[in-house]
């Protein structure tokens, strides 16, 4: 029997759903990430579903996000939000905590560390926490 070689093969649908539920539960309950939580709606159900769909395809499973929502563009839905290094760090911290609390193996955490950093950096639209990036293609909310 071969060893699973994708995060989807390791976690499966249920594991990815739990990861996303844990991620938003942590975001909802930890004072360390209150600014990140404030960027989200009161009801975290829809965003949990979207992240679950996105990560399922991104981790090597069925492309559920694309099937439901069309193309996969991370920057456009995040453009209205002021996302600087602090928000990026808070998002990564929540994801690391979710992996830890969910009992992810060291192999899986290592497998996902750099790719999750790339996701977080892709949606970051500010070089610091106050001013927009100097990029005319980034739409910053005023």
Can you characterise this structure?
- This protein has 7 helices and no strands.
- By secondary structure, it is mainly α.
- It has a single domain (7-123), classed as Globin-like (Orthogonal Bundle).
- Helix 1 packs antiparallel against helix 3, helix 1 crosses helix 6 (85-101) and helix 6 (85-101) packs antiparallel against helix 7 (106-123).
- The radius of gyration is 15 Å and the shape is globular.
- The chain starts with 6 loop residues before the first helix and ends in a 19-residue tail after the last helix.
- Residues 134-142 have low confidence and may be disordered.
Quickly list its features.
142 residues; Globin-like; 61% helix; mainly alpha; 7 helices
- Helix fraction, binned, reads 55-70%
Overall structural domain count: 1
Number of helices: 7
Subunit organisation of the chains: single chain
Distance between the termini: 55 Å
Run of helices and strands: HHHHHHH
| Mean pLDDT over all positions | 89
CATH superfamily placement? Globins
The name CATH uses for the topology is Globin-like
Determine and state the CATH class: Mainly Alpha
**What structural category arises from helix and sheet content?**
mainly alpha
DSSP E strands, number: 0
Shape summary: globular
* Low-pLDDT windows of residues: 134-142
Strand percentage lies at under 5%
Largest sheet: none
CATH architectural type: Orthogonal Bundle
């Amino acid at each position: 029997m071969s060893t699973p070689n994708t995060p989807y093969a390791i976690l499966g649908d249920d594991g990815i759903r739990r990861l996303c539920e844990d991620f938003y539960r942590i975001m909802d309950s930890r004072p360390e990430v209150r600014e990140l939580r404030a960027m989200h709606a009161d009801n975290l159900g829809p965003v949990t579903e979207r992240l679950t769909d996105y990560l399922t395809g991104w981790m090597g499973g069925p492309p559920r996000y694309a099937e439901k929502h069309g193309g996969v563009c991370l920057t456009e839905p995040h453009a209205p939000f002021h996302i600087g290094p602090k928000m990026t760090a808070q998002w990564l911290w929540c994801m690391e905590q979710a992996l830890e609390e969910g009992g992810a193996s060291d192999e899986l955490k290592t497998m996902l560390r750099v790719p999750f950093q790339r996701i977080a950096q892709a949606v970051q639209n500010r070089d610091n926490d106050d001013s927009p990036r100097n990029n005319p293609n980034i739409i910053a909310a005023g």
